[in-house]
Amino acid sequence: MDRMRIRGGRPLKGTVQVSGAKNSALPILFSSLLSGQECRYRRVPNLQDIRTTLKLLGQLGVQVDDGLTQNRVSLRAEKLDSLEATYDLVRTMRASVVVLGPMLARFGQAKVSLPGGCAIGARPINFHLTGLERLGAEIELESGYVLARAKRLVGNRVPFEFPSVGATENVLMAAALAKGESLLENCAKEPEIVDLARALRAMGAEIEGEGTETIRVQGKDSLHGCDHEIMGDRIEAGTFLAAGFLTGGSVRVEGLGWEHLEAVLGKFEESGARIGRGENHIEIFSQGKPKATDITTLPFPGFPTDMQAQFMSVMTVAEGASMISETIFENRFMHVPELCRLGADITIRGNTAVVRGVSTLVGAPLMATDLRASASLILCGLVASGETEVSRIYHLDRGYESMEKKLVTLGADIERLK
Ligand code: UD1
Questions:
Q1: pTM score, whole prediction
Q2: DSSP alpha helix (H) spans, 112-164
Q3: Residue 121: pLDDT above 70?
Q4: What are the strands of the beta sheet with 215-218, ordered from one edge?
């Protein structure tokens, strides 16, 4: 298993290109199931989660032309050999549950393993299932699988109890092929939903309102192929900006607009950083030690839960004490004991962590527990004195394309140990 060795203490300086967004690419690749024609995607990040997605699509019978090393993928779901997403793949990547909506809508049937719990919480899929039922799906749970059937889905009002990202994506894809109009209410407003709607529109879907609470979809009898470029990864960008800030440097990320990250940029400013906002780039200039700043994670446009761990890393060396409240996932503080091993002073009370800034962190061996948690360990390793070795970085490889290479271009002393 690969590990990452970091010798901390260097201020990071320079420019990195942001990869395509993992969380946008995943549902978009599954949306290719809605058409029998070729769907071509560009700027697809070369990541473990994407390889899992392509494997699953391949198992179903989709023709996969994998140009991932050039960040291109071409998919054609002319006919499927199987309508079953098995446990061995779904359990490795919960997001594969968004295969349900498109498979059901186009083929009238889908059998998808229940993903089960995961490290950052229970993560049920009840909102996905209720949403699909509103479109006329018959759903049964059997031996750990969801069985969904519908001759043809029928458009309807779908009010979500909570603006779940995955449920909005699943139901949006299903509604694109349903008969008649659907009105999705209390939808997630994340930029990834907007990118999915753009990809669906490129296939001929009729959608309006994405990025707001209400999305209106006029279902089509069929959709055609498309050529779509995935948007830039806002969480990857935020992670590199945090690295620049925390190490006392200045970093420019290119390949995404600032609007997708405004809640995070505002908090960096409150903590004393100077931010440059461009149409296709963001810059951060650290102006001395960060100042303690409180955050509460919320659905978009609030502070993203996927940046909570990285922001906490910045706060470990801030002046003063900050409160970090996690309202989206339970059990998303697994990075805390690891950060404390570097000398961070963090106490957890319920869903809030109190982080008292310390003057120095000291390198130590650490273990990654989930994707964003592993990023937070790397960040603290970059500022800790001496050597930090992070093991189990397969978590990191699920969501960051060539992270260590990009960090080296910013001047970090980091290497992957095989
Ligand atoms: C997506 C992102 C993830 C991000 C999260 C919140 C992908 C692949 N993953 O995850 O990185 O952290 O959005 O921005 O895009 N919930 C239910 N029932 C459901 C669905 C969700 O109770 O049917 C709960 C979850 O347990 C969680 C909350 O709702 O507590 C938010 O989940 P959701 O927005 O669905 O996140 P994901 O789509 O899983």
A1: 0.97
A2: 126-134
A3: no
A4: 157-159, 181-185, 215-218, 206-208
Residue nearest to atom 22 of ligand 1 (CA): 124
pLDDT tens column, 26-38: 999 999 999 999 9
- Cβ contacts of 292 within 8 Å, gap of 6 or more: 271, 315, 318, 319, 320, 321, 322, 355, 357
- Residue 301 has which token pair? 């446009």
In 3D space, the residue among 338, 417, 346 whose CA is nearest the CA of residue 381 turns out to be 338
Ligand 1, atom 5, lies closest to the CA of: 165
Domains of the chain: which residue ranges?
3-19+232-417, 22-229
- pLDDT number for residue 331: 83
pLDDT reported for residue 94: 87
Contact 108, 132 (CB under 8 A): no
Task: Tell me the best of 47, 48, 123 to mutate to test the pocket of ligand 1, counting ligand atoms within 8 Å of each CB and taking the most.
Answer: 123
Mean pLDDT, the chain, whole residue set: 96
3-19+232-417 is classed in which CATH architecture?
Answer: Alpha-beta prism (3.65)
Provide the edge-to-edge strand list for the sheet that holds 413-417. Answer: 365-367, 387-391, 3-7, 413-417
Q: How far apart, in Å, are the Cα atoms of 219 and each of 88, 106, 336?
A: 33, 12, 46
Q: Give the 3-state DSSP-derived string for 346-386, with helices as H, strands as E and coil as C.
A: EEEECCEEEEECCCCCECCEEECCCHHHHHHHHHHHHHCEC
Catalytic-labelled residue, pool 118, 187, 226, 380: 118
Amino acid at 173: M
DSSP for 253-301, please give it: EESS-GGGGHHHHHHHHHTT-EEEE-SSEEEEE--SSPBP--EEB-STT
396, containing H or E segment: helix 394-397
Q: How much distance in Å is there from the Cα of 193 to the middle of ligand 1? A: 13
pLDDT of residue 116: 64
Name residue 42's beta-bridge partners: 72, 229
Which residue has the least CA distance to atom 39 on ligand 1?
Answer: 166
Q: How far is the CA of 64 from the centre of ligand 1 (A)?
A: 27
CATH of domain 22-229: 3.65.10.10
Counting from 1 in the atom list of ligand 1, the atom nearest the Cα of 306 is: 12
Ligand 1 center to 46 CA (angstroms): 23
Residue nearest to atom 9 of ligand 1 (CA): 23
Strands 387-391 and 3-7, bridge-based pairing: antiparallel
Look up residue 363 and give its two tokens.
């390198």
